[in-house]
Amino acid sequence: MKAAPADQIRLLEVQALDQRLGQLDHKRKNLPENAEVERLNAELTQQRDLLIAAQTQESDTAREQTKAEQDVEQVRQRAARDQKRLDSGAVTSPKDLENLQHEIASLAKRQSDLEDVVLEVMERREAAQERAAELARRVEELQRKAAEAEERRATVLAEIDAEGAGAAKEREVIAGSVPDDLMKLYDKLRAQSGGVGAAKLYQKRCEGCRLELNITELNEVRAAAADEIVRCENCRRILVRTSDSGL
């Protein structure tokens, strides 16, 4: 294959732009902001789950407290009715009086026990409320931090995309001026060789594989016509000769 030396030089420009586009793509995928957003979102999910659990616990204890208070009220009302019967003098039988007094005493003990239950449930509910409030504050703070991190990421991504769009446009223009057959060979080699299809020969060294050409290889390159496409014997990439190739 043959191509004018100027076309071969332009191929190095295309290669440089391809490498820059690759670097930008790598940068886009490995932004520190990506890890930060992922970490914050994971923590936010965890704290939201804990908040839901705390709110559920608070709701459960609220119902438990309501039930316990209703039980206390029922016992209190029954005790009040018994006390009213006792005070009215309507019960005259000594045995009935004794039974009524015994029931009033039992109800007083039952009411006291139930009131202790209410206090215990109230304490648990208060603890659940405090826990839910603290978790709500954490969730709100994490939401703020996550939003800020996502905004920073969006700003960096916009800058990368803008630079990438400029580089892609420049590549399109330069590649359009390179012969099609040379571009096809370059693209094929680039796909096979880790993104580098053309390399500069600098001071007798291929900048693609970083190996120095031996004397036989150098003589072959020296003997090749200026418009002949030469390849590195080691990495098989297109080897572009310049004034500082050391030939």
Automatic annotation (TrEMBL):
Recorded source organism is Streptomyces humicola
Question: Which PANTHER family does this entry report, sorted A to Z?
Answer: PHOSPHOLIPASE C-BETA-2-RELATED, SCAVENGER RECEPTOR CLASS A MEMBER 3
Q: Which named protein is this? A: C4-type zinc ribbon domain-containing protein
Q: Where is this region: Disordered?
A: 57-94
Q: Which residues belong to any copy of the C4-type zinc ribbon domain?
A: 205-239
Sequence ranges assigned to domain CT398-like coiled coil hairpin in this UniProt record = 14-194
Compositionally biased, Basic and acidic residues: which spans? 60-87
Q: Which Pfam families would you find in this protein's record?
A: CT398_CC, Zn_ribbon_9
The lineage's top-level taxon is Bacteria
